[in-house]
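input
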Amino acid sequence: MINIKEINAKNSKSCYELDLKSIKHWNQNQWKNELEKDYVTSIGIYSNKLILGVCVFHKIYDEAELRYLSVHPSYRGRGLGKKLIHKIYKECKKENIKRIFLEVSLKNKQALSFYDHFGFKTINVRKKYYKDGSDALLKEKMLNK
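output
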């Protein structure tokens, strides 16, 4: 059974372990610090007690910044990312957030396709932003009331 729920710093170890298998974004201490912040909303998608996906976003006034979204590689293509995005939309609308920003590597074709599918538009490029020299695309999604 799949369920979606908010997570917190107590879940930092399982988030870190998922991250190691996917995009390797943060170390365990960074996960703990991120999940402790008041302005952060973190959502996990679970099957029983196994975490399959995580999204983390910052809420700042009437905007949100999607800082992390990943699904375990073995569970991709099953609509779990879609469920997380829809949960983010629901949370943002509840708090009158008007738009969501995110940053994604130009090399991450799978993520680019995913975000394009959900209507995120590129609004800027940060040249050679990542350690590997790839560009970061800044994307935005306006939310309807």
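quick obs: The two ends are 31 Å apart (CA to CA).
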